[in-house]
Structures are given as structure tokens and as C-alpha cells.
Specification:
This protein has 314 residues and is α+β, with helices and mostly antiparallel strands. The protein is 26% helix and 21% strand. It binds 2-oxoglutaric acid and fe (ii) ion. GO terms for molecular function: dioxygenase activity; metal ion binding.
């Protein structure tokens, strides 16, 4: 039985940004995961998004496959993905739908179910996507302050001016087709970008491993809190901070219950150079990673996860 992890709760509506930034710093250094409350996303919108997500995944497979992922947008069927590419097991038992950036010039790569089949599906997803981008940007400015940087640091380095936000609708079936081998809902992985904001339908399954280099791995459950997003730091933020802020390994275990979640990945603009912050390195603690361009890094990670061609550029 996994222990239950008690994560910090960060209030996005607090007027005391200094103390909020301090709590974020501690949470990111200790665990890389925290809850975000009072984020301003209405419950009614969240319910509509979950409802529409369920409607999409209930369509016949051939209908969903008409929107099969291209350029990393659209539908990925069950077992299409192996997040833990060092494992040779079957892919993950989940299906998903990716919605990429909505900004002009990029949004034409998105794939949408037709209005006749799922009326008002697209506007619902677009309004959630936009809302989450604004919550994510607010959070990033607090993360900058948590690193003793100017609140607009990540804007100034070009990460957030035309960023790469991806909304991913996820569906984990309750009953598994194969029970003779080790099957994960999502196998062990860390996220690639800056931050991820996750909402779930309340069904458990998410686990984190705080010490990724220790064996055997110890997994702890992350319980759902009504109305809270689960936020985690991604690998690019870990690179920026020279591992001060942790991109923690996590996974989703099947529980026999059907599960839906919404993961919003906020990734820097593809041209943004991700390099160790001056405040995070010294002679005795030199940069652990060379500088990389966000786009090249993401493409490489995505290509390792999916066998098919993935392109990020519009
Ligand atoms: O569904 C979840 O709870 C987590 C999904 C996840 O970690 C991911 O898609 O990166
Ligand atoms: Fe993840």
C-alpha cells in the first residue's frame, strides 16, 4: 500500500505574493508538486469540459481515429504511448486528445470533432484552454518571484511570449483488456515543460516518486482535492533551476475505476533558450545541463515517447 502524500496548498488569489512565492519555493524544492486553489476557473466550466471529454471518448473508435494525432494534435488511442521508453512493456492503457496552442498561425494545426457530432465542443475546449493559459502565466510569475527573479522574468527571456500550451484530455478505462502483464494508466515519467496543471474527476491513481534516483522506487499517492489543480514542475524548469526545483517522476496506476483527467502543459516558446539561472549555479555547483532551445528539446522528448512523426512547428 502506498502512503498518501501531503502536498502544500497554494492560494492563487492571495494578495500576499511574497509569502505565496515563499510557499511555492519550498514546495518546488521539496517535492515539485503542489495543489493550487482559488485559481478562478469556474466549477461549471470544469464540469462542462469533463462532460465533453467523456462524450468524445464515448464515440466509436473509427470516429475518433478520423482525428488521429498529427503534429502532436488530436487523438491517441489506447496503448499508443509509452512514457517510460526504457521499459519494453505494452504501451499505457489510456487514450487521449491533444489540443495545441490556439494563437493565430498555430491553431490551424488543431483537429476538432465536427459540430454535428459534438456541438459546442470546440468553444468549450477553447475557453478552458485560454483560461488555463492565463492561470498558468500568473503562476509562472509567482514561480519567478519564488526564484528571486523579476515577476516578468520568463516573459523577458521569451518563454511566455507566444508560448506552447497543450491541453490533453485523458481517459483511463476501468476494465483492462490485458491483465497478464504490468500495465500502467501512465507509466513513470516526468513532464517536459515548465509547469503542468492537472484536474481529475476524483478517481485516484496518481502517484509520485520523490527520489527518482533511489532504488527501489517509493511511490506515494496524490489524493484529489475538490476544486484544486494538482501542479507539477516540468523538466525545463528543472534545467533552468539546476535541479533546485524538482521535476518529479509520477505515474497513474489503474484502480479498476474509469478515470478522466485534464492535463495542461505550459511549455516555453520553441525559440526560448533554457539555460541555468545565474542564481542557481556557482563554482561549487556548476550547471548540470547545457543550454537548450525549448522547441528542439520538446521535439526530442516527444519523439522518444511516440514512434510516429511529431512536429511542433506551425
Ligand atoms: O492523468 C493524470 O493524473 C496524470 C497524467 C500525466 O501525468 C501526464 O499526462 O503527463
Ligand atoms: Fe505527467
Amino acid at each position: 500500500m502506498a502512503e498518501t502524500l501531503k502536498l502544500a496548498i497554494i492560494d492563487l488569489s492571495s494578495s500576499d505574493s511574497i509569502s505565496t512565492a515563499k510557499s511555492i519555493r519550498q514546495a518546488c524544492m521539496e517535492c515539485g508538486f503542489f495543489y493550487l486553489v482559488n485559481h478562478g476557473v469556474e466549477e461549471e466550466l470544469l464540469l462542462r469540459v469533463f462532460d465533453d471529454s467523456q462524450k468524445f471518448f464515448s464515440l466509436p473508435l473509427e470516429e475518433k481515429m478520423k482525428l488521429a494525432a498529427k503534429h502532436h494534435r488530436g487523438y491517441t488511442p489506447m496503448y499508443a504511448e509509452n512514457l517510460n521508453y526504457s521499459s519494453s512493456s505494452r504501451g499505457d492503457s489510456k487514450e487521449s486528445f491533444y489540443i495545441g496552442p490556439l494563437e493565430a498561425g498555430r491553431s490551424n494545426l488543431n483537429r476538432w470533432p465536427s459540430e454535428e457530432i459534438l456541438p459546442s465542443w470546440r468553444p468549450t475546449m477553447e475557453s478552458y484552454h485560454k483560461k488555463l493559459l492565463s492561470v498558468g502565466k500568473k503562476l509562472i510569475s509567482l514561480i519567478a518571484q519564488a526564484l528571486d527573479l523579476d515577476a516578468d522574468f520568463f516573459e523577458k527571456v521569451g518563454a511566455l511570449d507566444d508560448p506552447l500550451p497543450f491541453l490533453r484530455l485523458l481517459h483511463y478505462p476501468g476494465e483492462l483488456e490485458f491483465c497478464d502483464e504490468e500495465i500502467y494508466g501512465a507509466s513513470a515519467h516526468s513532464d517536459y515543460g515548465m509547469v503542468t496543471l492537472l484536474a481529475t474527476n476524483g478517481v485516484p491513481g496518481l502517484q509520485v516518486c520523490r527520489e527518482k534516483f533511489k532504488q527501489p522506487r517509493i511511490w506515494e499517492d496524490v489524493p484529489h482535492i475538490d476544486g484544486a489543480f494538482i501542479v507539477n514542475i516540468g523538466d525545463m524548469m528543472e534545467r533552468w533551476t539546476n535541479c533546485l526545483f524538482r521535476s518529479t517522476v509520477h505515474r497513474v496506476m489503474p484502480t479498476g475505476q474509469e478515470r478522466y483527467s485534464l492535463a495542461f502543459f505550459l511549455d516555453p516558446n520553441e525559440n526560448c533558450l533554457v539555460e541555468c539561472l545565474k542564481s542557481c549555479c556557482s563554482d561549487s555547483s556548476p550547471p548540470r545541463f547545457p543550454p537548450i532551445r525549448s522547441g528542439a528539446y520538446l521535439e526530442n522528448r516527444l519523439n522518444l515517447t511516440y514512434s510516429s512523426e511529431v512536429t511542433l512547428k506551425p
